[in-house]
Amino acid sequence: MTSNRQWRLKRHPEPDEVIATEHFSFAETPIADIGEGEFLLKTLVLGTSPAQRSYISKGLSMHDKIAVGDVMRGRGTGVVVQSRHPDYAEGDIVVASTGWQDYSVQSPGHQNPNVLSLQKVIDPVRPLTTTLGVLGSAGATAYFGLLDVGKLRPGDTVVVSAAAGGIGSCAGQIARIAGCRVIGIAGGPAKCAWIKEAAGYHAAIDYKNEDVGDRLSELCPNGVDVFFDNVGGEILDTVLMHLALNARIVICGFIATDYKEGGYSGPRNYVNLVRKRARMEGFFIFDYRTRFAEADARLRAWFDAGKLVNTVDIDNGLEHMPETLGSLFRGTNCGIKLCQVAPDPD
Amino acid sequence: MTSNRQWRLKRHPEPDEVIATEHFSFAETPIADIGEGEFLLKTLVLGTSPAQRSYISKGLSMHDKIAVGDVMRGRGTGVVVQSRHPDYAEGDIVVASTGWQDYSVQSPGHQNPNVLSLQKVIDPVRPLTTTLGVLGSAGATAYFGLLDVGKLRPGDTVVVSAAAGGIGSCAGQIARIAGCRVIGIAGGPAKCAWIKEAAGYHAAIDYKNEDVGDRLSELCPNGVDVFFDNVGGEILDTVLMHLALNARIVICGFIATDYKEGGYSGPRNYVNLVRKRARMEGFFIFDYRTRFAEADARLRAWFDAGKLVNTVDIDNGLEHMPETLGSLFRGTNCGIKLCQVAPDPD
């Protein structure tokens, strides 16, 4: 252990800017001392989420904001390297709000109620990217979104937007395992091929080169039972016109409009919710924290049976982290975008 | 019995036109003969519904269309005056798709599955306007929308748009009976006074003269648990910003945008469904036909106990029927808009 490299917020991105290295400054500081009841976590892998943009944007957000000069907040997996807490020993693997840095001081007794609390991973599955991948919050988000909010039933026709994204790549696999027919919407032929090969999708719609409405008519002649939406915007409006009776739309995200200021329309075809006696519902993975063990057990069982694949897309090196997050908004990732900061311990 | 007066569709209204007499022609024809298994119903009262506009509009609709020259479709209450059906006797009171005419031939064995089927009213409550009022489909729509779709709970803060409308005036009363705090949104001081005096509302917001968002902040400091929306448009978008956690938005109608062609935005604040883990759901009263007896029993019990008032707004004379329907779109009615075609029989 030498010093602690950190990415700190340098300036808030403008609404039309993609997150990039220029918004952050890379600093080195001494590793902090831990107090009684705390432990020091060495970051191994960092996750990414579109929600992280709202930590640093200026607009309304359901998340706490980060000030200029603060370490960028983010979730990661680490190994305990020093501990003054009886429940955490050196070598334990923990998923926590580590921030974008090599070392973080964790206080299990003082958790921010507005972020996912830290969790020790019992019997972690190697490689440890699984803890932020299909066996982590991406998998759990798809799991609860589809099964709990979407009330998935075998035989349902399920459509997922941003199907090649982190949560989308889990959703395709889980819906297929649940006995559904799964259609993914993604941008470009490469992603469309990938979601069918790697992420469980039976069929793909390339929204950049195909008419989404026409393709939905072809692929879902009886309508869409569950739409798991990560995107919003025009794609949501189009899918609204292809609902089956009693359809469920699970609102997971809205990357198409999330950071636009003004000028965009809402889903005007929401009126079809009446024609189809359908439902549109938002959810938030934090609310399911008391049920994570349930998701974990089922996801692991599928993983162990070879039904669920850890669809991760990994960059290497903390120094790339701003670009790693930025890639979510450039749409260049296939799968759950992570950054390996240090090698998995033996 | 002499002849049968009828209103027939003369021309389809343009998108920006309010429904008026000029869209219909008033004709007189002989009363039709009934066949085996049919009965002749003399119309006593006709109901109105915003959905009737979509019967005669040119755009997409979930309803069957009416051709030029056909009798205008509509639901009404009548008395059986001739019968060749064993289950229907002279003097029976029946709610049915009578159309806008004095006499209709009813075939209980051949019901259109796309409209509410005919129903004999057992022990009708006088005056018979109740059968199309709080004890009819207006009451049942508010009942199922609030209790079943909206999952109303005592203590909930409930907001209703078009609160002075037919369904709105029932919704206010039912939500109050269910132990909720009920706020109505209506246009103008007269309607706002009326909903508090006659329709159960604890408070009113005059959207024509007040800032709806500011008033919601004042009246619902802890947010809106259930929004029963008859309107859509800007009011829906505003209420979306005032949801409580786990709020339910019941989409009953969207008179603000229903017949606009292009140019309007959808509810862009639907993104708040995620922030508030909330739900927006459409429903259709036809789907509840097997449960009408349940609603009827409870609505009658409340009515008999004096808790529920028959909030009707009655025109007199079949010759006024186009204007009676048009008044829904001019927003001039307070309560359930009906037209008395013939006096209640003794």
Could you characterize the architecture of this molecule?
The structure is a homodimer of 346-residue chains. In chain A, helix 2 (137-149) crosses helix 3 (166-177) and helix 2 crosses helix 8 (292-304). The first copy, chain A, has 9 helices and 15 strands. Chain A is 24% helix and 25% strand. In chain A, the strands form 3 sheets. In chain A, strands 3, 4, 5, 6, 7, 14 and 15 form a 7-stranded mixed β-sheet that branches. Chain A is an alpha/beta fold. The first copy, chain A, has 2 domains: 3-133 and 310-340, Quinone Oxidoreductase, Chain A, domain 1, CATH 3.90.180.10; 138-285, NAD(P)-binding Rossmann-like Domain (Rossmann fold), CATH 3.40.50. The longest helix of chain A has 13 residues, at 137-149. The two termini of chain A are 17 Å apart. Chain A binds chain B through residues 62, 232, 237, 251-254, 257-258, 264-284, 287, and chain B through 62, 232, 237, 251-254, 257-258, 264-284, 287.
CATH third-tier fold name of the largest domain in chain A:
Quinone Oxidoreductase, Chain A, domain 1
So, the CATH homologous superfamily of the largest domain in chain A? Medium-chain alcohol dehydrogenases, catalytic domain
> How many distinct folded domains of chain A?
2
Assembly type of the chains comes to homodimer
End-to-end C-alpha gap of chain A: 17 Å
Which class best fits the helix and strand makeup of chain A?
alpha/beta
Largest sheet of chain A: 7 strands, mixed
Write down the CATH class of the largest domain in chain A: Alpha Beta
Low-confidence stretches of chain A: none
